[in-house]
């Protein structure tokens, strides 16, 4: 059961959901939000700053992100290609963030000066995905068929209790789970660094200087916005803030070259409600792709056979039966659990 709420004091769509298993036995489920977003050739996916790798469906393939340097979906990106940009992805492509400690994901259209963000607690909503038909004749034909205004468009997909597709979660007998998520349209700031259900912040370096910005989702009265160099007391910026929903302020700090920076938004009581520390990129090895389990007759461990069977059952696997792994094995070469 899902309810959609628009509150007069908040420039966001609030979605509250309840999943209930009314059966006497466990069931598995998959929840993925899927908003389509109209985008031109200069559109960009906005994954959080700590996302360095993305997976295909079922984690069958992996790529570095945002700069792909290998082959992904049979496309050679070895020259180093920014696959967060819609125009750089020529074929139908899905990519899902390996992991993130941030609560947001989104997209920004440079041509339209507008974007869309999704916000949810990343501990229960780890799924951050983009799907595109590809910036090519084939993809544009599908864009034309599937949109009212002939596209192009991308799909942002957001997984609740799921970081991939498929990624099913068990729901016990008569168990209930509740969760909330928010979709936030925004403008002016461009590519942002963090977001909550109340505000969006930007902090990035450019040729112009240190660009900063704040966008209000709910009223920000008596708030303060501060930018500091980490480890130093004096603020480079410390301004009082009074913003109504769907309004923004932004600026540029010129003539300084500080070390790592942090931006903090504090409420009227001095509590930090949203912050971002400049991300320090690290060269990390790509995570391993998923590997198919051994055939049932090749399993020698009771535990391994049981867990593989449970996984296949949980994921409603299309081509392997969990019962092959559950059946007792009565002799050498027989499938199933050892007796």
Could you characterize the architecture of this molecule?
This protein has 339 residues and is mainly β. The chain folds into three domains: 2-185, Distorted Sandwich (Beta-galactosidase, Chain A, domain 5); 192-277, Immunoglobulins (Immunoglobulin-like, Sandwich); 296-338, no CATH class. It contains three helices and 29 strands. It has helices spanning 137-146, 302-314, 323-326, and strands spanning 2-6, 13-20, 27-29, 31-33, 36-38, 43-46, 53-55, 62-64, 67-68, 71-72, 75-76, 81-82, 93-97, 104-109, 114-119, 129-132, 153-160, 169-171, 176-187, 194-195, 199-206, 209-216, 220-229, 235-243, 248-253, 261-266, 272-277, 328-329, 337-338. Strands 4, 5, 7, 8, 13, 16 and 17 form a seven-stranded antiparallel beta sheet that branches. A hairpin with a 5-residue loop joins strand 23 (220-229) and strand 24. The model has no long low-confidence stretch (mean pLDDT 92).
């Amino acid at each position: 059961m899902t309810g959609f709420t628009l509150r007069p004091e908040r420039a966001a769509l609030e979605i509250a959901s309840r999943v209930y298993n009314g059966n006497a036995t466990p069931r598995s489920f998959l929840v993925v939000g899927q908003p389509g977003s109209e985008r031109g050739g200069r559109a960009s996916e906005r994954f959080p700053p700590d996302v360095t790798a993305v997976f295909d469906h079922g984690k069958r393939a992996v790529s570095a992100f945002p700069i792909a340097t290998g082959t992904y979906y049979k496309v050679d990106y070895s020259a180093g290609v920014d696959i967060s940009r819609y125009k750089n992805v020529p074929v139908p492509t899905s990519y899902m963030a390996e992991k993130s400690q941030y609560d947001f994901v989104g997209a920004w259209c440079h041509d339209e000066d507008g974007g869309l963000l999704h916000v949810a607690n990343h501990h229960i909503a780890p799924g951050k995905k983009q799907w595109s038909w590809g910036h090519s004749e084939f993809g544009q034909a599908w864009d034309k068929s599937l949109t009212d205004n002939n596209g192009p468009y991308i799909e942002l997909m957001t997984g609740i209790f799921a970081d991939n597709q498929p990624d099913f979660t068990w729901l016990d007998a008569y168990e209930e789970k509740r969760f909330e998520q928010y979709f936030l349209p925004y403008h002016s700031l461009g590519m942002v660094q963090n977001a909550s259900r109340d505000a969006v912040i930007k902090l990035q370096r450019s040729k112009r200087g240190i660009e900063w910005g704040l966008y209000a989702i709910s009223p920000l009265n008596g708030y303060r916005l501060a930018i500091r160099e980490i480890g130093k007391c004096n603020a480079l910026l410390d301004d009082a803030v009074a913003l109504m929903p769907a309004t923004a302020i932004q600026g540029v700090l010129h003539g300084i070259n500080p070390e790592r920076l942090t931006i903090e938004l504090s409420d009227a009581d001095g509590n930090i409600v949203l912050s971002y520390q400049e991300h320090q990129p690290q060269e990390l090895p790509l995570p391993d792709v998923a590997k198919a389990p051994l055939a049932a007759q090749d399993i020698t461990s009771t535990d391994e056979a049981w867990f593989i069977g449970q996984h296949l059952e949980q994921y409603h696997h299309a081509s392997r039966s969990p019962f092959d792994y559950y059946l007792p094995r009565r002799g050498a070469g027989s499938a199933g659990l050892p007796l």
